[in-house]
Amino acid sequence: METKKILRSLDAHVFTPSDDLNPFTLNALGADIVAPMTVGLKDWPINEVPGLYIEQLIATYIPGSKEYVVTSLHLRTKGNVPINSVSLRKIPIDKYKYLTVKKWLLRIFERAHEEDIYTPFNLNEQSELSSMAHEGPTSTNLDYVARIYLVSRYISDSPRKAVADAFGISPRTASNWINLAREQGHFGVGL
Questions:
Q1: Within its chain, how far is the Cα of 135 from the centroid?
Q2: C-alpha to C-alpha distance for 61 and 45, rounded to whole angstroms
Q3: Sheet holding 116-120: strands in order across?
Q4: What would the mean pLDDT of 136-162 be, rounded to a whole number?
């Protein structure tokens, strides 16, 4: 799907240098979730240092490390805010990297003849999961466990906690469900 079509549903502050989303520019994160290999954030305020802005942040997926790393960071100031070692230490780079990758999570919606169709995957819109948790580790629930776990590896420090929070279950139960999802093949590519 063309990047322009997806950008309509995404925040104007995120971008990818690719003109088109295709298997060569996308990274399979696992299950049915993909993201561009290179993603960016622009003109974003840094809450921790008022008056300091991210002019541009580029995060690139490094296949050997199985993670996105910040490969470029440009800052600018508004007013008389200095850019010095004190202000730089206050910037939680990983927080803004996670934010950038999170905005670009895509779910393969449909496999068409010549190209896949993608839809944005918003982890925060999975609210129906807590009501589904009482059904136990069903195949549907384990599909969601795999998606949430795989996505959370790229946008947070604790994928297990993300699964527990999404379903409203204990971390121990989340670990059991993650192991079941892995054993039953719900992770697909990625793990």
A1: 27
A2: 24
A3: 26-30, 33-36, 106-111, 116-120
A4: 88
